[in-house]
Design goal:
This protein is 51% helix and 29% strand. With 72 residues, it is α+β, with helices and mostly antiparallel strands. Strands 1-2-3 form a 3-stranded mixed sheet.
């Protein structure tokens, strides 16, 4: 399951890197994915929107069993 999440994050990374940030997969537990936004994304005021509308949406589209994506 971690490999599948990592593959999805790999698709999102180029967009985050264009803004000076990145995302790290911390863990996948049950129906929850834990990630860490780093670089410019870690301090960006839009990071909550990035998490919900970008990262969570992309993961849940390909993995509907995931109920939430949280930043740790």
């Amino acid at each position: 399951m971690k490999e599948q999440v990592e593959a999805i994050l790999d698709k999102l990374r180029p967009m985050l890197m264009m803004d000076g940030g990145n995302i790290e997969l911390v863990d996948v537990k049950d129906d929850e994915v834990q990630v860490r936004l780093v670089g410019a994304c870690g301090m960006c005021p839009s990071s909550t929107m990035t998490m919900k509308m970008g990262v969570e949406r992309a993961i849940r589209e390909e993995m509907p069993q995931i109920k939430r994506v949280v930043s740790v």
